[in-house]
TrEMBL record:
Pfam families: ThiG. This is Thiazole synthase. GO terms for molecular function: thiazole synthase activity. The keyword Endoplasmic reticulum does not apply. The gene is thiG. Gene3D superfamilies: Aldolase class I. It is found in: Cytoplasm. Signal peptide: none annotated. Its EC number is 2.8.1.10. InterPro entries: Aldolase_TIM (IPR013785), Thiazole_synthase_ThiG (IPR033983), ThiG (IPR008867).
Amino acid sequence: MDLLRIADQTFDSRLMLGTGKYTDLDVMRAALEASGAQIVTVSIRRVELGAAGHVGLLESLDLSRYTLLPNTAGARSADEAVRLARLARAVTGTAWLKLEVIPDPHHLLPDPVGTLEAARRLVNEGFTVLPYMPPDPVLAAQLEAVGCATVMPLASPIGSGRGLLTRAQLELVVERSRIPVVVDAGLGVPSEAAACLELGASAVLVNTAIAEARDPVRMAAAFRAGVEAGRAAFLAGRMALRPHASASSPLAGVPTLPDPEVPV
């Protein structure tokens, strides 16, 4: 079977889902079901603060079906990320962690220096670290070297729905990584998720594009189909690009008609 392997676990689904921004927990659960996702990320900071839409979040998830991936959303520095990670492990009992270090609430772009520092510390503390990062192949190699289980480069800014603005950089990350590449942030429609899998990404993580759709459950099912199609296309291998047209029908054996402008 074509399974996704992260650290010591394997998964059938290559679509991961976030749990924020849904109108209510019932819609979230239905979207998770429709998506086929097996890995679900939650913000421990939001859960602890009891923010609207998050009260009872952990209790509403069937943890016999989903692998919980707590994240350090809200951490502005490596130190804050490490503190949130320790809290997440204490609250949930899992050492899996989506690492986020985001110092500026305006652009919400990850801090590469802080991310690398926090990743090194957390791996040494026994965490399975899945770091959210800029699409930088140099940083990806450094995160791999310190022992991260995946790298999670962004496609475009968080929640923007602008799609694959960083495609060229993502291709470099995928080409050089020996651990799974999970494209995270900025995807807006299933075709963009399919494109990520087509270029060789191992998985995608989606939240806003599903939670803010007019019909989140239908959109979750559409993303599931897009991810499956993209992975199948990658495994099948795309045709070679050509500089000129190439006839679909064979020319051998086709009678040659005289040129009407040349006298017989």
